[in-house]
Amino acid sequence: MDKRRVSFGLYRVLAYVTGVFLIGLTFVAMPAKYLVGETSMFALAPAPEGLEHWFGPESPLMLFIAMPHGYIYMIYVLVVLWVSLDRRWGAGRTLGVVLAGTIPILGFVVEHRVVKSERAKEERAASAHGGSQEPAPTS
């Protein structure tokens, strides 16, 4: 199997997984820790009765969402570096793709644009070589 395809496929999967965990962190775990519950830092709302243990500074959501997100993001960064070396991206593009994984929703948009751009490059290369290369896989 072509290592360029493996690295790019892994990038695509990790872009989505990182994005989903980041949305969970931003809109679920962080508000549960800092905004809800009487012991939370900002205490904007009381915790629902019977579910108090899910809110406040000791929220287990941080363990289930924040910790995996951190590890997944580190792997995402390494895979982006792998892809950037395989595909000879410049430093600016590489940094932009890495940073896209830190802003909710943006990672999905950037992944879509990167895939579109890389497929167009593959098609141009294939047509320049008389179609001797395999077509890009579709998903």
Low-confidence runs (pLDDT<50, min 5 residues)?
none
- How many helices? 4
**Helix percentage range:** 55-70%
What percentage of the residues does DSSP assign to strands (E)?
Answer: under 5%
Mean pLDDT: 89
Distance between the termini: 17 Å
The helix/strand order is: HHHH
Instruction: Tell me, briefly, the overall form.
Output: elongated
Quantity of strands, as a count: 0
Structural class: mainly alpha
Largest sheet: none
Radius of gyration: 20 Å
Keywords:
single chain, 139 residues, mainly alpha, 67% helix, 0% strand, elongated
Report on this structure.
This protein has 139 residues and is mostly helical. 67% of the residues lie in helices and 0% in strands. α1 packs antiparallel against α2, α1 packs antiparallel against α4 and α2 runs antiparallel to α3.
Summarize the structure.
The chain is an all-alpha fold and 139 residues long. It is 67% helix and 0% strand. Helix 1 (3-34) packs antiparallel against helix 2 and helix 1 (3-34) runs antiparallel to helix 4.
Secondary structure layout plus pairing:
Layout: H1 3-34, H2 60-87, H3 91-100, H4 106-128
Helix pairs in contact: 1-2, 1-4, 2-3
